[in-house]
Structure formats: structure tokens, C-alpha cells
């Protein structure tokens, strides 16, 4: 099984983001970035399948500006065999929609045969939760989203999914798209020797044009604003006071 | 009084109204319509077109009757077929596409639940359009608001896609009334469904007598501070006294104290109850994303510096193992 894994470079999850004063987006310059946590989990699962000899090759792909190469190097250091960088300029990168990314991934899959594509369930910047499902739709492949357990089974994957009311297990025939939820695994850290080795692993450069993907935006961002801020109400001294205040507010009987 | 121009636009507006229509994909369990569908109907009403509801499933008639009673719903499309049992996205999407072919909807909406998120983008791909996730407001037929960056930024977006494929944040819209309407019901086409590529194996749903987390008026959540799954019992006791649902932070889920479907946050459930009580939760960005639209927030934590206190209306700096039982007792008085 040859697995393609999508990784996205995003503003680090611990950063308290700030909106640009001109309301065109959020401030990304001089802000710590890292690989989207869900992508790390998807990658870890693919690498584990390779280590268990259930997968033959793991290819990491990213679609983004020159700096996105860092995410690919991280993926290579964590065990991907090779990487593909679909490169674009900063301005284009800012306007990429999951639709465009999924289109590009679909073209990659058509160009070179993969048995599965592993993605994170959502990117923590746009919070869209779309790319995996869009890709499955473009390819007409089955989808196993929000995976918390993945087991290969004779030309198929048995996937346990995190759904609203609990857990659901489905069997999807390969080729398939899987999107990783938080509970799928604990991603490993890249060791220094592996980081050094990763520098020698191949990175193929591509562009949307070469893949024949039209990047015309379908969604225009009119403005980005801060959400209304909440004012902290302060402390109450003890439980009886707390209960009294909640009763006054009418939120408890 | 009216210039010819206004008159032109007025009549044009009424023609538009007939051409434009919205499909809401109903969520259900063969027995009852999912609560989030009613919130989605309200979002659809804000868009302002004629509303159709699609009920797909192995047993959809009973749910279709419920959908037909929702005010402002014009038409209920009922797709009933054994192949639609368990609502696999590969299969339900095909039914949505058949309905789209026949009725040519301009907008297709579903709730932003695991069901809706599974289907809407897949249908969008097949219609070759870019979808919009988790909208929290409707400004016009093509302009919506949605949260990004764990709710730390709100984007106002305009969709130029030829069809608008949308998931709706349930907590951002009031639930529509579920009685008083009289929609017509018609059978929807169930064409060629490929059952070969995916199949349902099993399901393990968490059982609870408490109200549903996403629609409860009061939510009590526990975090790492609870120290064990057993200790969650003190929250259950308080919850039962208040008729509340119980949620959790990611730390509590990861530590195995409670199942994952109780997680509140950016990647768990989004809640906006009248009262949210955070117990032993520090208040990481990712947790706040799931609860900061609650009307009243109470935080109980022994760390005075915990970020949760910055959003709490009432903060209690105390040992939760003393404060929570005391609160349960105080409320019993």
C-alpha cells in the first residue's frame, strides 16, 4: 500500500493570534508556525503502517509558499520516504481553499497511483474540515473521516470513527481517503539524526499549473474581525455567594 | 411614488425568489429529526428562499412526517431505501445529487455535525464547487460569517460558487419551531447507489439519561483537575441536580476519564448554553473555542492565574473537591 499524506504549515496552536488592523486577515509575519497537529497524526499513522510492513511507501505532500518546505522536512524526518511540494507565492497561498488543495491532490493521485490518502480532519487555521471529503468526492473514493483507529484488512481499511454520539466502525475499500482525529495516535518527535537524514531525501517540486489546477478563488474574504471580547466578571468568595448570584441571574432555579 | 427602476427591481426580486431554493439535508436516527436540523432550518430561513428538506434513510417516513410540520418548509423529499441504512456519506451524497439534478437548488445546507461535515463537502466536490463550513451568520444569499483560528477570528466571506454548499453551526442559530407547518411530501429518487466501496460495521453510542450536550441549557465540564474518571461522579451529581449535560476538556478525554464524544472545544463539540460551569479546566484556546459563546460562564479552579477566569462571569478560586459537593448541597436547600 502506497500512502500519500497531506501536511499543512499553520500558525502554531499555542499562539494567541491577532487580527490585522486593516481587517484583511490575521498577522502571520514573525509568528511561530508548525505542522498542523492533525496532519502530524495522519503522518504518524502512515509511518506506523509502513513500520508494520502494511505500507510500502509514504509520500508527504504540501501545497503552499516556499516556507511550507519546512513542513515537508519535518514529515521526512518523521519517516516519510519522499515529499512533493506544490509551490505557490504568499499571495496565492493566502487565498487557497480546501477545494483547490483537494483538486491538486486529486491530480497527483491520477498521475501516480496511491492506495490511500491520509489527511488531518481539519486545519487549525481555517477550521474548514473539508479537504478529505472533497478529495474523496473528486476521486469517487470512499471516505473514513475522524478516524480514531485504522486497521488494514485485505484490500480494505477497517476504521473506527469519532462521531457525535460515540464511535462508529466502517469498512472502506481501497483506494480510500482517511482523515485523522486526535485520538488516532501520539505523533513521534523527530530525532536529530533523522532530521539530518531528511535533508537528503528527495523533494519533488510542482505547481498548480503543471497539475492543471485552476486556482480562481470561489470564496472572497470580505473582512476578518476579532470576535466580541468577554469581560471577566471577577471572583466570588464562596459557594453560597456563587449559588446566590446564579439564582439572581435566573440561570439556576 | 415608486420609480420605474424600483418597480423593475421589485418584480425581478419576485422572479428570483421562484428560481432560488434551498435544500436542507435532515439529520436523524430513523426515529426523530436531529435537533441541529431545526437550527439549520433557521439559517435557511435567513437566506430567504423556498425551503425543501431531504430525509434519506432506511426508515425515513416517520422523520419525514416530523419535517413536514416545520413551519416555512415547502416540500419534504423522502428517500427510503435499505441501502441508506446507517447514512454512509458515499450513499447519502448520491441521493442529494439526484435531488439536486431534479430541483436545481441554489443552496444546500446541513448542520455542522459529524453527519453534515461528512456529506456536504463530498457533494460539493461532485458539483465542482467550494463549500463553506460552519457558518455562524447569514448576511445575504451569498455572504456569511464563520469562525477561524479556534474562534479567535471571524471571517465575513462571500461565496461566488455556482451553488452554495454550506454547513451550519447549530449553536449560532435558534431552533426553528417544529410544529404548525404543512409541507408537501414527495418521494425522492434513489438512483444508482454504489454499495461496494464502503460498509457499516458497528456502532457504539454512549448512553446517558442526561440532556444532549449540544442542546442542554446548562453544561458542567470537567478537566484534568478531576484527576480520575471516578471523580467525575461529583460532576454527575451536580449535573443531575441542575438537569445539566456533562462535558470535558481534551485533557480529561486524553487521560481516559470520559469518552471522546464529551469533548468541548475547537475539535470537539461547540456549545452555547445558558450556563457553563468549567471545573478544573485551565481554559486553553482550544477549549474556549467550544464554549465562549455561553451566556453565563462559571469557573471553579484552585489556580487563580488560570486563563478560564478571564472569560468567566463568576470565578471561584477553590478546591473543586470541596466546592462541587458544597454546590450540590447548596442547590438542594
UniProtKB/TrEMBL annotation, chain A:
Cited PROSITE patterns: ETF_BETA
Domain Electron transfer flavoprotein alpha/beta-subunit N-terminal: 23-215
Localization of this protein: Mitochondrion matrix
GO cellular component: a single term: mitochondrial matrix
Molecular function GO terms recorded: electron transfer activity
Keywords: Electron transport, Mitochondrion, Transport
One of the protein's GO biological processes: fatty acid beta-oxidation using acyl-CoA dehydrogenase
SUPFAM superfamilies xref list: Adenine nucleotide alpha hydrolases-like
Subunit structure: Heterodimer composed of ETFA and ETFB. Identified in a complex that contains ETFA, ETFB and ETFRF1. Interacts with ACADM.
Purpose: The electron transfer flavoprotein serves as a specific electron acceptor for several dehydrogenases, including five acyl-CoA dehydrogenases, glutaryl-CoA and sarcosine dehydrogenase. It transfers the electrons to the main mitochondrial respiratory chain via ETF-ubiquinone oxidoreductase (ETF dehydrogenase). Heterodimeric electron transfer flavoprotein that accepts electrons from several mitochondrial dehydrogenases, including acyl-CoA dehydrogenases, glutaryl-CoA and sarcosine dehydrogenase. It transfers the electrons to the main mitochondrial respiratory chain via ETF-ubiquinone oxidoreductase. Required for normal mitochondrial fatty acid oxidation and normal amino acid metabolism. ETFB binds an AMP molecule that probably has a purely structural role.
Family: Belongs to the ETF beta-subunit/FixA family.
Protein name: Electron transfer flavoprotein subunit beta
Protein's organism: Bursaphelenchus okinawaensis
From TrEMBL, chain B:
Co-factor note (free text): Binds 1 FAD per dimer.
Locations listed in the record: Mitochondrion matrix
Keywords: Electron transport, FAD, Flavoprotein, Mitochondrion, Transport
Cofactor: FAD
Residues reported to bind FAD: 224, 249-250, 263-267, 280-287, 301
PROSITE patterns named in the record: ETF_ALPHA
One GO term of the biological process aspect: fatty acid beta-oxidation using acyl-CoA dehydrogenase
SMART domains named among the record's database cross-references: ETF (SM00893)
Residue stretches making up the Electron transfer flavoprotein alpha/beta-subunit N-terminal domain: 22-204
Gene Ontology molecular-function annotations: electron transfer activity; flavin adenine dinucleotide binding
Gene Ontology cellular-component terms listed: electron transfer flavoprotein complex; mitochondrial matrix
Domain of life per record: Eukaryota
Main location group: mitochondrion
Family named by the database record: Belongs to the ETF alpha-subunit/FixB family.
Subunit note: Heterodimer of an alpha and a beta subunit.
Physiological role: The electron transfer flavoprotein serves as a specific electron acceptor for several dehydrogenases, including five acyl-CoA dehydrogenases, glutaryl-CoA and sarcosine dehydrogenase. It transfers the electrons to the main mitochondrial respiratory chain via ETF-ubiquinone oxidoreductase (ETF dehydrogenase).
Protein name per its UniProtKB record: Electron transfer flavoprotein subunit alpha
Species in which this protein is naturally found: Bursaphelenchus okinawaensis
Taxonomic lineage of the native organism: Eukaryota, Metazoa, Ecdysozoa, Nematoda, Chromadorea
Amino acid at each position: 500500500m502506497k500512502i500519500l499524506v497531506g501536511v499543512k504549515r499553520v500558525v502554531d496552536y499555542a499562539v494567541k493570534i491577532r487580527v490585522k488592523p486593516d481587517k484583511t486577515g490575521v498577522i502571520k509575519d514573525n509568528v511561530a508556525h508548525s505542522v498542523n497537529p492533525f496532519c502530524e497524526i495522519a503522518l504518524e499513522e502512515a509511518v506506523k503502517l509502513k513500520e508494520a510492513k502494511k505500507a510500502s511507501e509514504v509520500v508527504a505532500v504540501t501545497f503552499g509558499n516556499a516556507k511550507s518546505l519546512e513542513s515537508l522536512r519535518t514529515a521526512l524526518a518523521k519517516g516519510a520516504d519522499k515529499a512533493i511540494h506544490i509551490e505557490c507565492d504568499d499571495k496565492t497561498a493566502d487565498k487557497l481553499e480546501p477545494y483547490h488543495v483537494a483538486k491538486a491532490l486529486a491530480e497527483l493521485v491520477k498521475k501516480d497511483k496511491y492506495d490511500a490518502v491520509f489527511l488531518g480532519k481539519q486545519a487549525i487555521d481555517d477550521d474548514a474540515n473539508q479537504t478529505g471529503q472533497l478529495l474523496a468526492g473528486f476521486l469517487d473514493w470512499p471516505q473514513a473521516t475522524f478516524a480514531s483507529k485504522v486497521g488494514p484488512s485485505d484490500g480494505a481499511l477497517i476504521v473506527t470513527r469519532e462521531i457525535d454520539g460515540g464511535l462508529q466502525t466502517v469498512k472502506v475499500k481501497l483506494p480510500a481517503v482517511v482523515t485523522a482525529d486526535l485520538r488516532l495516535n501520539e505523533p513521534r518527535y523527530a530525532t536529530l539524526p533523522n532530521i539530518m537524514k531528511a535533508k537528503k531525501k528527495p523533494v519533488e517540486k510542482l505547481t498548480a499549473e503543471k497539475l492543471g489546477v485552476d486556482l480562481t478563488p470561489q470564496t472572497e474574504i470580505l473582512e476578518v474581525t476579532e470576535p466580541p471580547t468577554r469581560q471577566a466578571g471577577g471572583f466570588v468568595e464562596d459557594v453560597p455567594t456563587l449559588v446566590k448570584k446564579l439564582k439572581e441571574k435566573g440561570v439556576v432555579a | 411614488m415608486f420609480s420605474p427602476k424600483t418597480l423593475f427591481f421589485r418584480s425581478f426580486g419576485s422572479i428570483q425568489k421562484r428560481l432560488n431554493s434551498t435544500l436542507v439535508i435532515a439529520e436523524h436516527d430513523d426515529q426523530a429529526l436531529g435537533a441541529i436540523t431545526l437550527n439549520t432550518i433557521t439559517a435557511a430561513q435567513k437566506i430567504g428562499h423556498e425551503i425543501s428538506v431531504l430525509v434519506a434513510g432506511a426508515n425515513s417516513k416517520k422523520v419525514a412526517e416530523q419535517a413536514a410540520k416545520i413551519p416555512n418548509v415547502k416540500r419534504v423529499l423522502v428517500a427510503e431505501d435499505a441501502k441508506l441504512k446507517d447514512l454512509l456519506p458515499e450513499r447519502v451524497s448520491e441521493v442529494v445529487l439526484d435531488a439536486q439534478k431534479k430541483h436545481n437548488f441554489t443552496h444546500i445546507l446541513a448542520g455542522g455535525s459529524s453527519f453534515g461535515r461528512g456529506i456536504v463537502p463530498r457533494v460539493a466536490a461532485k458539483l465542482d464547487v467550494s463549500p463553506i463550513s460552519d457558518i455562524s451568520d447569514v448576511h445575504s444569499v451569498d455572504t456569511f460569517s464563520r469562525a477561524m483560528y479556534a474562534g479567535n477570528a471571524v471571517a465575513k466571506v462571500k461565496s461566488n460558487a455556482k451553488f452554495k454548499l454550506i454547513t451550519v453551526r447549530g449553536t449560532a442559530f435558534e431552533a426553528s419551531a417544529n410544529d404548525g407547518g404543512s409541507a408537501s411530501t414527495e418521494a425522492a429518487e434513489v438512483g444508482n447507489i454504489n454499495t461496494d466501496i464502503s460498509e457499516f460495521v458497528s456502532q457504539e453510542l454512549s448512553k446517558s439519561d442526561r440532556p444532549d450536550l449540544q442542546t442542554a441549557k446548562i453544561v458542567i465540564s470537567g478537566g484534568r483537575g478531576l484527576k480520575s474518571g471516578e471523580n467525575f461522579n461529583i460532576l454527575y451529581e451536580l449535573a443531575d441536580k441542575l438537569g445539566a449535560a456533562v462535558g470535558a476538556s481534551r485533557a480529561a478525554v486524553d487521560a481516559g476519564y470520559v469518552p471522546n464524544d464529551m469533548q468541548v472545544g475547537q475539535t470537539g463539540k461547540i456549545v452555547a448554553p445558558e450556563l457553563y460551569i468549567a471545573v478544573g479546566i485551565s481554559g486553553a484556546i482550544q477549549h474556549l473555542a467550544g464554549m465562549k459563546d455561553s451566556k453565563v460562564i462559571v469557573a471553579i479552579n484552585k489556580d487563580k492565574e488560570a486563563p478560564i477566569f478571564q472569560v468567566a462571569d463568576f470565578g471561584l478560586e477553590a478546591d473543586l473537591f470541596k466546592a462541587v459537593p458544597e454546590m450540590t448541597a447548596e442547590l438542594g436547600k
